[in-house]
TrEMBL record:
Localization, UniProt: Nucleus; Chromosome
Classification via SMART domains: Rtt106 (SM01287)
A GO cellular component entry from the record: FACT complex
GO MF, one example: nucleosome binding
Recorded family membership: Belongs to the SSRP1 family.
Domain called Histone chaperone RTT106/FACT complex subunit SPT16-like middle: residue spans: 26-119
Key word Transcription regulation present: yes
GO biological process entries: DNA repair; DNA replication
The organism's taxonomic lineage, starting at the top: Eukaryota, Viridiplantae, Streptophyta, Embryophyta, Tracheophyta
Protein name: FACT complex subunit SSRP1
Amino acid sequence: MFTTILCGLFGAKVTKPGKLRSRQDGYAVKSSLEAEDGILYPLEKNFFFLPKPPTLILHEEIDYVEFEWHAGGGSNMHYFDLLFRLKSEQEHLFRNIQRNEYHNLYEFISSKGLKITNLGDAQPTVGIKKVLENDDDDAVDPHLKHIKMKLAEMKVTRR
């Protein structure tokens, strides 16, 4: 109602949040771009990062998306990075997204028909494999069981 009034009075276009809901029931996820911490908003037709540098990535400009899991160990295994490769060959790497946001982001990106490149690899990267084999965090991430089942299904369908 409020947005309808704004549009009518000022002729301004109002961008509504996307269908993604974060684990904290918000419309965005915390991440870093370059050296700046901020918030990544997955919207219906684009991704928007605030505060610095404000970055708008249109879905139609995205060539592919890649989820990058942190290899190694310790607290790094609780985070992943999200790489957007644009058709112009420019890349945007959003770092240090909490692992429990993976399922919601994956579902959102898949629902938009965006290409996800590293899910179909024959051999998961060491970081992904290590994260999926680590049972210590099952209580932290309720979607981990679902992710493990999907990975097992992918292996079965390839045979």
